[in-house]
Design goal:
The protein is α/β, with parallel strands linked by helices. Helix content is 32%, strand content 30%. It has eleven helices and 14 strands. Strand 4 (55-60) and strand 5 (63-64) form a beta hairpin. It binds adenosine-5'-triphosphate.
């Protein structure tokens, strides 16, 4: 588990992290989403033990991560700027990581060659294309068999086929080994299908942290039409987040238990009542609705 409490980090007087608190449960895939400059890479670098916070704590499996080699040996990362020795090939880096990670799996390295057929393991990594470099990084990280995997914008630069491939390998690890995955992205859509928890980061703070099941079970979109024009008075107990109208048809986003909401709306005798699925993007827009920060930046 990763537990981050009230972390503050300033660079030259600028607060990049401003009291950031979040919790990543063991064996979950946690998506950290936020606009450019929100602080995603900065918090991930703290979690990897590269930065020391000005204040607050960062605990991985209950222990502070900074200058803690035992905890770091259980963690692997794919940072936004990939790390490899100047002229090292994927194979050279494999030997390096094998020395660093006691649980490094040689058999897996051989098996994953098939998953990344385009990567020439003997080529210096710096001569590979950006996408190939990412593939090489995934190949190596998966062989380290970490308990915690930290990924900063991991699929940036990968083509759609390779994105699917990489997510499927990651989800396999989560299912089989209980790996905890923390992944950042500025694109909510990218994470929608893979994460079970999502945190929204803005201006160095986590604004909202939810499990996807909680989110999806607690908010619904209904399309309604009534025999009389207009919308009848709605029960006050309904927590309506948004209403829109096209002709006689109203679309309502309502927070609460879906079954109860439908029962209450049905009591108003609509001539049409249909429940529509909400995607993650919509849920976050309505959850964050009252706030005026760059919600669009977060979800577009
Ligand atoms: N080493 C540093 N020195 C000075 N300022 C920094 C440093 N690292 C980050 N910052 C500042 O902290 C803020 C957060 O940066 P960070 O890279 O964490 O954002 P991000 O959410 O990862 O953004 P992006 O999506 O653009 O990668 C930015 O305003 C950035 O300029």
């Amino acid at each position: 588990m990763i537990q981050i409490n009230d972390v503050v980090k300033s660079f030259d007087g600028f607060r990049a992290l401003d009291g950031l608190t979040m919790k990543v449960e063991e064996g979950s895939i946690y998506g950290l989403v936020g606009p450019n400059g929100a602080g995603k890479s900065t918090i991930l670098r703290h979690i990897m033990g590269i930065y020391r916070p000005d204040s607050g704590s960062i605990l991985v499996h209950g222990q502070p991560v900074y200058e803690n080699p035992a905890i770091k040996a259980e963690m692997a990362a794919i940072p936004d700027e990939l790390y490899y020795f100047n002229s090292a090939s994927t194979r050279d880096m494999m030997k390096f990581y094998r020395g660093l990670y006691p649980q490094f799996d040689d058999k897996r390295y051989d098996a994953l060659r098939e998953a990344f057929p385009e990567v020439d393991e003997n080529q210096p990594i710096r001569r590979l294309s950006k996408g190939m470099q990412k593939q090489s990084a995934f190949w190596l990280a998966l062989c380290c068999q970490p308990k915690v995997l930290v990924l900063d914008e991991p699929v940036d630069g990968l083509d759609p086929v390779m994105r699917r491939q990489v997510w499927s390998l990651l989800m396999g690890d989560v299912a089989q080994r209980g790996t905890t995955v923390l992944v950042s992205s500025h694109n909510l859509r990218e994470l929608e299908d893979v994460c079970d928890h999502v945190g929204i980061l803005s201006h160095g703070k986590v604004l909202l942290e939810r499990s996807l099941t909680d989110l999806q079970d607690n908010i619904i979109k209904l399309q309604l039409a009534f025999s009389e024009p207009g919308l009848p008075p709605l029960p006050e107990s309904l927590n309506v987040l948004h209403t829109s109208q096209i002709g006689r048809v109203y679309t309502l986003i309502v927070r609460g238990d879906p079954t109860q909401i439908k029962e209450r709306m049905a009591a108003l005798n609509p001539i049409l009542m249909e429940m529509l699925p909400l995607n993650l993007e919509e849920i976050f827009i309505y959850e964050l609705g009252g706030e005026d920060y760059a919600v669009r930046d977060i979800v577009l």
